């Protein structure tokens, strides 16, 4: 029997290729490979694997030694980092289309999502951030604006903290700078979940329905067949992903808010039940004057899926603003 969720992936891949993106396997080191959707000037139509010993590919040049890039050099680079429930192309399927004509778009799959894998035992968000940075370096990206959702937002914060020369700005939704014991405990108690693994890695239809129910503002009905197909496809690498969740947790006593050099937009669903808008307001105060907050009405945790037009509109305004500011257009956000 055809899996409905699996069946849509070839269509989604075709749409992304029609938009000018190509899938690339970037070998960061032996045993660690990151899958990235990237602008087509990096590869041929059938894709390729970029190894650590492939400087020509890392510089964004076409195989065969051509010195000319097909992508306009004036385009800014934008990186979209997915959350915990799906890999990059599935997460951003309603969003990449409005960005791809103006920006060089990069959509990585984090380790143990999609086709990305590693032999390393490191499960921390710092490691995920280092892998993203390594893949971008192999693709010749020296400066970029990063967009992160949920788990991807935590990775984005780590990337911005560790590599300020790489990350120019951040746009984060439904996330925290760090998942402390206190934040995790309060969140699980409020949602009635025993643990983050129980909530985010459901094994039953009931568990998946509960996850989607708290993730969206508007209750949506799907047939059980849809949920069963989703469970089979989206929650693979269960052992490793549970280890990733454990790798997120840090002691509340050890938690410190970094001083970020970047401008940061917190783009939030006002009805987010997982990380509510009050938490976002507190984060804004902690992150200082370079941080902005915009709430989207009638949207929950999955705001980019639930209200993609509103999300895309604000994301485009943010990216236009940071590009204008970088070009000397001023410091006041128009978002």
What does this molecule look like?
It holds the Pfam family Abhydrolase_1. This is AB hydrolase-1 domain-containing protein. Residues 76-190 form the AB hydrolase-1 domain. Residues 43-74 are annotated as: Disordered. The structure is a single chain. With 335 residues, the chain is of the alpha/beta class. Helix content is 39%, strand content 19%. It has helices spanning 4-18, 55-58, 88-91, 125-138, 151-162, 181-191, 196-200, 205-215, 224-234, 238-248, 277-287, 303-306, 308-326, and strands spanning 21-29, 32-39, 48-50, 77-81, 104-108, 117-118, 144-149, 167-173, 179-180, 249-250, 263-269, 291-296. Helix 4 packs across helix 5 (151-162). It is globular, with a radius of gyration of 19 Å. Residues 55-71 have low confidence and may be disordered.
């Amino acid at each position: 029997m055809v899996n409905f969720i699996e069946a849509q992936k070839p269509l989604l891949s075709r749409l992304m290729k029609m938009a000018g993106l190509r899938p690339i396997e970037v070998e960061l080191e032996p045993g660690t490979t990151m899958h990235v959707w990237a602008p087509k000037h990096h590869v041929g139509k059938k894709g390729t694997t970029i190894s650590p010993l492939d400087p020509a590919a890392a510089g964004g040049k076409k195989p065969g030694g051509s010195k000319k890039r097909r992508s306009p050099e004036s385009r800014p680079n934008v990186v979209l980092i997915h959350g915990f429930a799906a890999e990059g192309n599935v997460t951003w399927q309603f969003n990449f289309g409005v960005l791809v004509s103006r920006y060089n778009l990069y959509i990585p799959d984090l380790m143990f999502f999609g086709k990305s894998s590693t032999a390393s035992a490191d499960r921390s968000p710092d490691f995920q951030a280092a892998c993203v940075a390594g893949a971008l370096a192999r693709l010749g990206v020296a400066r970029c604006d990063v967009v992160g959702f949920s788990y991807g937002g935590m990775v984005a914060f780590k990337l911005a903290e560790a590599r300020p020369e790489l990350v120019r700005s951040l746009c984060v939704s439904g996330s925290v700078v760090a998942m402390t014991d206190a934040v995790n405990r309060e969140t699980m108690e409020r949602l009635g979940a025993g643990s983050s693994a129980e909530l985010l890695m459901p094994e039953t239809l009931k568990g998946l329905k509960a996850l989607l129910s708290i993730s969206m503002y508007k209750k949506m009905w799907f047939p059980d067949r849809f949920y069963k197909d989703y469970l089979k496809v989206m929650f693979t690498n269960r052992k490793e992903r549970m280890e990733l969740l454990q790798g997120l947790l840090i002691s509340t006593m050890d938690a410190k808010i970094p001083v970020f050099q970047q401008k940061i937009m917190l783009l939030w669903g006002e009805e987010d039940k997982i990380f509510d808008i009050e938490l976002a307001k507190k984060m804004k105060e902690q992150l200082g004057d370079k941080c902005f907050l915009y709430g989207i009405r009638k949207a929950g945790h999955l705001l980019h899926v639930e209200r993609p037009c509103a999300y895309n509109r604000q994301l485009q305004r943010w990216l236009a603003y940071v590009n204008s500011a970088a070009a000397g257009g001023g410091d006041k956000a128009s978002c």
